[in-house]
């Protein structure tokens, strides 16, 4: 099987307090903030590696991200993936999920014949759940999201997906695009040997010209979802010092709470 896993570098949760919003572009400012592989995307990598171990074939990683995501992608290579493709250009910045899916689909088509495309069901920073379905539509693949079980028997793929009050079981045939949930597996740890081997695995970077994409269809310009007005909340607080005996303070506090509508 030829399996592609779309992964997204997301800000390291330990540095969330450093993320700001540019008041001019209204986009998140992440420059200089360490990134990690989107956690549920690692479950997608693990699912791909398990299928490869069972059936043979190749696992490739595909990501639309800035150039500094190279080291993040190498973690996926260290887990056992065979190749990585970084789709990177300033023209891709500010993309919503549809513009992102266009870039990913263009990269996937350029890679060549694929049997299965896996992604995480959602990203830790966006959480839209859009990418698996959008990529599937653009690739012309049948698609499902929130996959919790996945297995191959002969030419049939068996899938279980979670829904609000239970689950649904499917049988299908390749090619497919699937978004996996955390419940599907426990991602393996990288080993020292895996890290060493990752340094010599094929790593390709493509931009808009390589993918045949017009700037008008990528990034902020190609995004139907546009940021609206930005209002920064005020965090100041007003304080009032109360003095007197405890029994007097209790009555004053109750009166203040009633005036504020907290107490009837």
From TrEMBL:
Domain Electron transfer flavoprotein alpha/beta-subunit N-terminal positions: 25-215
Membrane spanning stretches: none
One of the record's GO molecular function terms: electron transfer activity
Gene3D superfamilies on file: HUPs
InterPro entries assigned: ETF_a/b_N, ETF_b, ETF_beta_N, Rossmann-like_a/b/a_fold
PANTHER family named among the record's database cross-references: ELECTRON TRANSFER FLAVOPROTEIN BETA-SUBUNIT, PROTEIN FIXA
The name this protein goes by in its record: Electron transfer flavoprotein small subunit
Organism expressing this protein natively: Pelotomaculum schinkii
């Amino acid at each position: 099987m030829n399996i592609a896993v779309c992964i997204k570098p997301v800000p390291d949760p330990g540095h969330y307090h450093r993320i700001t919003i540019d008041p001019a572009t209204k986009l998140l400012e992440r420059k200089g903030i360490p990134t990690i592989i989107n956690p549920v995307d690692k479950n997608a990598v693990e699912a791909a590696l398990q299928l490869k171990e069972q059936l043979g074939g190749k696992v490739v990683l595909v990501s639309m991200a800035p150039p500094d995501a190279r080291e993040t992608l190498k973690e996926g290579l260290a887990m056992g993936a065979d190749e990585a493709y970084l789709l990177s250009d300033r023209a891709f910045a500010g993309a919503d999920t549809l513009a992102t899916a266009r870039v990913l689909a263009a990269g996937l088509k350029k890679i060549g014949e694929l049997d299965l495309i896996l992604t995480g069901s959602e990203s830790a920073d966006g959480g839209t759940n859009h990418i698996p379905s959008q990529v599937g539509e653009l690739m012309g693949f049948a698609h499902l999201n929130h996959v919790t079980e996945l297995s191959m028997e002969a030419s049939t793929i068996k899938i279980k997906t979670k829904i609000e009050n239970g689950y649904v079981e499917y049988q299908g045939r390749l090619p497919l695009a699937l978004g996996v949930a955390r419940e599907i597996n426990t991602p393996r740890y990288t080993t020292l040997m895996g890290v060493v081997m990752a340094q010599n695995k094929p790593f390709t970077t493509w931009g808009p010209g390589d993918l045949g994409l017009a700037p008008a269809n990528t990034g902020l310009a190609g995004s139907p979802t546009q940021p609206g007005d930005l209002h920064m909340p005020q965090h100041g607080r007003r304080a009032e010092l109360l003095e007197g005996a405890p029994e007097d303070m209790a009555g004053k506090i109750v009166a203040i709470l009633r005036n504020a509508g907290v107490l009837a």
